């Protein structure tokens, strides 16, 4: 072997000669590109903490030896009856987990008989049980040693041999029962996991003496990997998630359970504090020395969630905070259960010991205080009441401030019913002011279960919905996360009064609507490395630090080139989430439209100063200061327009822009109960209020109103100022004069539209339609103003030409009718047949009292009858075609009180042919104008979408 010196450069680029590498020759650029770069082959932000270390291998060896020793002592130790019963219950859990059928083992005595017999028919199954049980005991023993080592180092105690062999004895001396240092922890109580003592003069002693140095150098990730119960059962499917066990995801969960309530104004810790300060004691000057936050993890992948929690809690700062987060991991499964609770409690005790050392606290007092507060906080649950069943809490002992429920495995049948049931099961374990975080692989809001969801929302309130569905690289993180809070009893009883309201249904009946506001978040993009999840954490904190969630309707931030964070205010109506799951690309909350909308809009406050108009004799600060200066102004005088918010129907809010001189009349008409009034002062020149009026009547505008103003009616001024409005509303770029003159239809007045040949008008509009579409790209503000004003004229014209059969009151119809020749009604009118019902002509001199219109006459098919009555009864009947009889009914009704004889001789009417032609012309004009209106609306939508999307 050559005795040459190894140079790292020669390994990184072995193709270059050694002499070259050792000299001062500069590498050519082309050769440098081909060189080896270690960063290409390493994962960013990965520190290798999960790799096996030298100390970790030693700890793994100790674990294996102790597990074998436990297994050998299992039958040699003389257990008392209660301990044997606990071992038997352990076996029952194991048998249920492994689906074993052992009918002969029906008591603890039969179990130990079969364990001691090599001829037992269940020897193979019992061997697996002994291995699993011994592994659990070995894990608990070594975790106690870890706690003992940390505690003794903090107390500056020297560990003795007997302390390592019997850690329970050492811990019970420090935490004496009945004293002020009594520790209410399962970790130091006697149970079927705590009976083990290593053999004296056994080789394990030498390794145990090195255990303190071993634990100092083994990371949390490696520690949990060594003691993972799953690793002892290689034949079973691994229930482990690398994504859920990542420390960034643990940070994300702790961020939600501790800071989210503060973000939405429902308590929690100060959002200005650093994340790392959540898990430590309070400052010395605080009257209440410690505050605890009880947290329960439950559901699937508990082992992964536990690791992410410990990793996140381990990253603490040097400044004490307000809360000590006290986690518990609860499950009925064999691999978790009491064993997991005990093991994780020892994890927590080690964590508190580290905190006590960091904050220079006495570890015994610190740990005992935290535990006393934690247990006392949980026992408050006895006073709670249930909304489902008043007796449900009768036997409940504990309740938690926060619960994290992770559901990734669902049954094939009724998975959504399974989801709701799991949530309902957790209600009894949640405090009245608690929060439940549900991670779910299935949607909670589906139409078929809306009634059940609505029942659930009588007890729980949806505070937030997070969607990870469109996040690639998320691993086992479920696509949906729901944050729910428990309603107070008083809040639940008032729910029907506050959130129920009436709307008119299609059938004309009133139906009750239940509406619940909530926040919706959406993470889109790709996590090329899971370490980038920290960007999502930062986005949440920045959003709630810099934005007011209750006055911010829509928010979007590009975290990186291919990762985005989105927020909008959503609502639940009758158990259905309105916007989050909408797949319509024209909806505001669709991801593509969402991104475009944020880019192409300003807030309403960019265009106007928005001032609330006070009620009655109240005066705003501005008006009051003007009065003091001797300036007298009415409220509406200082504003250009008035904005009226109509919220009498909470599921369909309206904005109305009205002239300032109509303020008082609007207040008298609408009142104040369900309306708010705001004065608008333009901040930009050439504001076209019609653009705003039209935009908020469009489907997009209505969605923005719903997202911004829906929910609880508070801070309306700020929320109204945050309404999104297209940016091009401020551009005011005018069309050249020669182009504007060519848009002939737009310059017609309402009267001119009615007089103009509607067919020719439709042709003219079709000719300029494409031209208008092209112009809208460069002149959107002016073209949209033209189109909106033209639509208003069309509406006025169509209103004049009513679609009902009564055309005769229209001024346009009357003006057209006067151009046609007229003929006397009687006599010598061949189009009207007159039948008299009187015997003496003097009855015609009585005044006309009433008129009766009858349908088709049976004696003369196709003819309609109009009967004229005086005070004595029916005088005569007029028979003619339908339109003419209805025209006669219209004009003769105006002549009631006149002599019937005068009515008969002095009334002149057109021929049925002329009348029918006139009516058809009116109908054609209405139809053509309606067609033009539809084309105009289509152009408006195209223009708006082109600017927004």
Shape: elongated
Q: Whole-number radius of gyration?
A: 41 Å
Class inferred from helices and paired strands? alpha+beta
Query: Distance between the terminal alpha carbons, to the nearest Å?
Result: 70 Å
The number of strands is 24
Helix content range:
40-55%
So how many helices? 35
Low-confidence stretches at least 5 residues in length (pLDDT < 50)? 6-34, 230-236, 268-288, 316-320, 385-396, 493-511, 580-586
Average pLDDT reading? 76
Question: Main sheet, how many strands, which sense, barrel?
Answer: 12 strands, mixed
β-strand amount: 15-25%
Question: What are the key terms here?
Answer:
35 helices; twelve-stranded mixed β-sheet; alpha+beta; 949 residues; single chain; 24 strands
Write the layout of secondary structure elements.
Blueprint: H1 8-12, H2 18-22, H3 29-33, H4 54-73, H5 81-98, H6 108-115, H7 123-155, H8 161-165, H9 167-174, H10 204-208, H11 211-217, H12 220-227, H13 247-263, E1 292-299, H14 302-314, E2 324-330, H15 337-358, H16 363-378, E3 400-407, H17 415-427, E4 430-440, H18 450-456, E5 460-467, E6 471-472, E7 480-486, H19 489-499, E8 500-504, E9 510-526, H20 533-546, E10 554-560, E11 563-573, E12 576-577, H21 591-599, E13 601-603, H22 604-607, E14 608-612, H23 621-628, E15 641-646, E16 654-659, H24 663-670, E17 675-682, H25 689-695, H26 699-709, H27 716-721, E18 724-726, H28 737-742, H29 750-755, H30 758-778, H31 780-800, H32 811-817, E19 823-824, E20 833-836, E21 850-856, E22 864-870, E23 873-880, H33 882-893, H34 900-906, E24 908-909, H35 912-948
Parallel strand pairs: 1-2, 1-3, 3-4, 5-9, 6-9
Antiparallel strand pairs: 4-7, 5-7, 8-9, 9-11, 10-11, 11-12, 13-18, 14-17, 15-16, 15-17, 19-24, 20-23, 21-22, 22-23
Helix pairs in contact: 4-7, 4-11, 4-12, 5-6, 7-9, 7-15, 13-14, 13-20, 14-15, 15-16, 30-31, 30-35, 31-35
């Amino acid at each position: 072997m050559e005795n040459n010196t190894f140079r790292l450069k020669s390994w990184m680029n072995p193709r270059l000669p050694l002499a070259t590498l050792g000299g001062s020759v500069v590498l050519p650029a082309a050769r440098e590109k081909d060189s080896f770069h270690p960063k290409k082959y390493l994962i960013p932000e990965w520190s290798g903490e999960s790799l096996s270390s030298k100390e970790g291998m030693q700890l793994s060896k100790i674990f294996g030896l102790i597990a074998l020793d436990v297994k050998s002592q299992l039958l040699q130790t003389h257990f008392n009856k209660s301990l044997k019963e606990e071992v038997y219950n352990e076996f029952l859990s194991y048998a249920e987990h492994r689906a074993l059928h052992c009918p002969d083992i029906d008591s603890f005595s039969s179990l130990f008989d079969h364990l001691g017999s090599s001829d037992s028919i269940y020897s193979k199954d019992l061997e697996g049980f002994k291995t699993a049980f011994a592994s659990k005991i070995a894990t608990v023993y070594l975790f106690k040693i870890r706690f003992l080592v940390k505690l003794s180092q903090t107390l500056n105690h020297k560990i003795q041999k007997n302390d390592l062999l019997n850690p329970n004895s050492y811990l019970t001396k420090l935490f004496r029962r009945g004293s002020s240092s009594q520790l209410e922890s399962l970790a130091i109580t006697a149970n079927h996991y705590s009976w083990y003592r290593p053999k004296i003069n056994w080789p394990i002693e030498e390794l145990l003496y090195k255990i303190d140095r071993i634990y100092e150098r083994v990371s949390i990730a490696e520690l949990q990997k060594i003691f993972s119960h799953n690793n002892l059962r290689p034949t079973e499917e691994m229930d482990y998630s690398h994504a859920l066990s990542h420390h960034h995801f643990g940070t994300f969960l702790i961020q939600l359970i501790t800071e989210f309530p503060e973000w939405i104004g429902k308590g929690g810790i100060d959002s200005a504090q650093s994340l790392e300060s959540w898990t430590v004691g309070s400052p010395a000057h605080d009257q209440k020395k410690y505050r605890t936050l009880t947290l329960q993890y439950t559901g699937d992948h508990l082992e992964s969630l536990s690791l992410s929690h410990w990793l996140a809690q381990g990253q603490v700062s040097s400044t004490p905070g307000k809360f000590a987060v006290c986690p518990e991991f609860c499950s009925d499964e064999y691999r978790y259960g009491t064993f997991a609770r005990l093991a994780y409690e020892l994890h927590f005790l080690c964590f508190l010991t580290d905190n006590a050392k960091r904050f220079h606290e006495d570890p015994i007092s610190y740990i005992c205080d935290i535990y006393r507060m934690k247990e006392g906080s949980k026992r408050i649950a006895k006073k709670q009441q249930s909304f489902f069943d008043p007796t449900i809490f009768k036997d409940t002992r504990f309740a938690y401030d926060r619960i994290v429920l992770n559901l990734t495995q669902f049954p094939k049948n009724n998975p959504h019913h399974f989801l709701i049931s799991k949530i309902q099961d957790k209600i009894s374990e949640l405090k009245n002011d608690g929060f439940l975080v549900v991670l779910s692989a299935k949607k909670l809001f589906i139409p078929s279960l809306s009634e059940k969801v609505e029942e659930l929302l009588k007890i729980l309130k949806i505070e937030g919905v997070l969607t990870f569905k469109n996040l690639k690289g998320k691993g086992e993180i479920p696509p949906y996360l729901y944050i729910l809070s428990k309603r107070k009893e008083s809040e639940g009883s008032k729910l029907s009064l506050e959130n129920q309201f009436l709307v008119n249904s299609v059938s004309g009946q009133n139906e009750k609507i239940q509406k619940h506001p909530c926040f919706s978040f959406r993470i889109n993009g790709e996590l090329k490395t899971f370490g980038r999840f920290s960007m999502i954490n930062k986005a949440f904190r920045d959003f709630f630090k810099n934005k007011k969630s209750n006055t911010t309707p829509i928010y979007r931030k590009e975290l990186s080139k291919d990762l985005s964070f989105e927020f909008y205010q959503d609502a639940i109506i009758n158990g259905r989430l309105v916007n989050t799951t909408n797949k319509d690309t024209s909806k505001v909350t669709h991801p593509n439209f969402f991104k475009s909308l944020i880019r192409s809009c300003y807030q309403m406050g960019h265009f106007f100063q928005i001032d609330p108009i006070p009620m009655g004799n109240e005066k705003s600060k501005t008006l009051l200061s003007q009065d003091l200066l001797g300036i007298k102004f009415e409220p509406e005088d200082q504003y250009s327009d008035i904005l009226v918010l109509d919220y009498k129907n909470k599921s369909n809010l309206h904005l109305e822009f009205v002239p300032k001189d109509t303020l008082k009349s609007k207040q008298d008409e609408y009142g104040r109960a369900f309306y708010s009034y705001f004065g608008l002062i333009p901040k930009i020149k050439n504001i076209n209020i019609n653009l705003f009026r039209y935009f908020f009547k469009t489907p997009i505008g209505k969605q923005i109103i719903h997202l911004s103003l829906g929910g609880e009616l508070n801070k309306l001024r700020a929320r109204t100022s945050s309404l999104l409005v297209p940016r091009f509303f401020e551009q005011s770029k005018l069309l050249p004069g020669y182009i504007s003159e060519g848009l002939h239809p737009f310059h017609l007045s309402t009267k001119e539209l009615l007089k103009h040949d509607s067919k020719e008008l439709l042709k003219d509009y079709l000719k300029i339609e494409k031209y208008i579409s092209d112009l809208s790209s460069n002149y959107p503000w002016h073209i949209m103003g033209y189109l909106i004003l033209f639509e208003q004229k069309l509406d006025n014209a169509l209103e004049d030409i009513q679609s009902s059969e009564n055309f005769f009151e229209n001024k346009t119809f009357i003006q057209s009718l006067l151009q046609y020749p007229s003929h006397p009604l009687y006599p010598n009118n061949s189009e009207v047949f007159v039948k008299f019902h009187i015997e003496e002509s003097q009855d015609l001199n009585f005044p006309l009292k009433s008129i009766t219109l009858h349908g088709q006459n049976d004696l003369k098919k196709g003819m309609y009858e109009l009967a004229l009555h005086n005070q004595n009864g029916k005088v005569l009947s007029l028979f003619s075609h339908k339109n003419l009889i209805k025209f006669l009914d219209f004009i003769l009704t105006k002549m009631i009180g006149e002599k019937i004889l005068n009515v008969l001789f002095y009334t002149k009417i057109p021929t049925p042919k002329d009348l029918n032609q006139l009516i058809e012309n009116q109908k054609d004009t209405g139809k053509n104008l309606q067609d033009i209106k539809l084309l105009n609306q289509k152009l408006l939508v195209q223009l708006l979408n082109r600017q927004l999307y």
